[in-house]
Amino acid sequence: MAGSLNKVMLIGNVGRDPEMRYTPNGSAVTTFSVAVGRQWTGQDNQRHEETEWFHVEAWNKLAEMCGQYLSKGRKVYIEGRLRTRSWDGQDGQKHYRTEVVAQTVQFLDSGRGRQGDAAAPTDEGVNDVEPDDIPF
Question: d(Cα 80, Cα 101) in Å, to the nearest integer?
């Protein structure tokens, strides 16, 4: 077998304002959702629409950029990898969540950051990879 690949690319709109926090060792992590829509015409010639929601997580400098400049409604390009986590809920059931760990985030519109005065970067993406040694 030649190897493995885990890569996802999304273009969509931020579904809620990002939430940024810091881990106990000081690493920044920002989480947000992205809605990706798809439209098609069915055999009945009717137009159909579907929206898929993705949970996105960014780390370190990328997390700080996302926390500062992204806001609900912004159009973004995200490139990263999929990760599935599991945990036992208070109800005793096992829960699963598949999320995108962002390695590149590119701002696709000319929206303004939540700081108000500075325009968010739109010319180029921001790259960062989260350290694999950070416990989740």
Answer: 5
Q: Is the dihedral of CA 74, 75, 77, 80 positive or negative?
A: positive
In this structure, what CATH number is given to the domain that contains residue 76? Answer: 2.40.50.140
| Inside any domain, residue 87 | yes
Amino acid in position 96: Y
Confidence of residue 93 (pLDDT cuts 50, 70, 90): very high
Domain extent, residue 46, equals 8-127
Q: What is the pTM of this model?
A: 0.77
64 within 8 A of 108, measured Cβ to Cβ = no
pLDDT digits (tens, 9 = 90+) for 36-82: 999 999 999 999 999 999 999 999 999 999 999 999 999 999 999 99
